[in-house]
Amino acid sequence: MPTLYGVYRSRALRNLWLARELGIELEHVPVMQAYRLADPHGAEALLNTASPAFLAISPAGAIPVLVDDKLVLSESLAINLYLARKHGGPLAPADASENALMEQWALYGATSIEPSALAILYTYAEGRSTSDDGIAEIVSHVEKLKRPLAVLESRLQKASYIVGSRFTVADINMAEIVRYGQGHAPLIAAFPAVGAWLKSCQARPAFQAMWARRNAEPA
Q1: In sequence order, which residues have a C-beta less than 8 Å from that of residue 158 and are 6 or more positions away?
Q2: How far apart are alpha carbons 27 and 25 in whole angstroms?
Q3: pLDDT tens across 152-210, in order?
């Protein structure tokens, strides 16, 4: 059985969501981000990204990591694409063209959307969204997101899903990236097709199950 290292409050959520959609079992080993612990090197510290036992698996000290037999794979988007291709079915690419498109959208989301969306998330999470500096940061990142979200909006105005005519791993990967900016309501409101698609993705039972487990974890 493949083993996934990470916690729900991390990008590992993408992989746990996909696994539930696929109906596959993963051995889940919770590994906490070291920055969330007061003393990650303490004797009583939870297994975390600075723990020697985890660093032996992932020298980069980042989660998630998937171990599947002799394969050790990091990067949540790559893990999802691998699992979808391995297990097949409607969530996987149907042919080489769909595979290329799924890789394209994953890379586009990671490079063009995630950095600014994540910055917006942190501004809200740190309680700075109403300060002058926080507002300025949000405005700056919203501006950076206008073009890439317009590209996604154009795609979703023409089709209900990212690739093909069905829900796939491409939707999971992109939905989890766009979610980071979801807390800033005006951003999503400016792209109604994106908003409707995101709502549909998050209404899926597999997402709801994973989100409940995420919320049950300590913040």
Answers
A1: none
A2: 7
A3: 999 999 999 999 999 999 999 999 999 999 999 999 999 999 999 999 999 999 999 99
Which CATH number characterizes residue 122's domain?
1.20.1050.10
pLDDT for 86-145, tens place per residue?
Answer: 999 999 999 999 999 999 999 999 999 999 999 999 999 999 999 999 999 999 999 999
Residue 21 · residue 206 · CB < 8 Å: yes
Identify the bridge partners of residue 5 per DSSP, sorted by sequence position. Answer: 29, 65
Is residue 63 situated within a structural domain? Answer: yes
- The total number of structural domains in the chain stands at 2
**218 within 8 A of 21, measured Cβ to Cβ:** no
Q: What is the CA radius of gyration of the chain?
A: 18
CA 81/CA 83 separation, integer angstroms: 6
pLDDT the model gives residue 104: 98
Q: Which amino acid is at 115?
A: P
For residue 13, give both structure tokens: 């959520």
Q: Which domain holds residue 8?
A: 3-90
Distances (CA, A) of 5 to 58, 96, 152: 10, 29, 30
- Determine the 3-state secondary structure of 198 from DSSP: helix
Amino acid identity of 82? Y
Q: What is the CATH number of the domain that holds 19?
A: 3.40.30.10
Rounded to 5°, the CA angle 121-181-160 comes to: 155
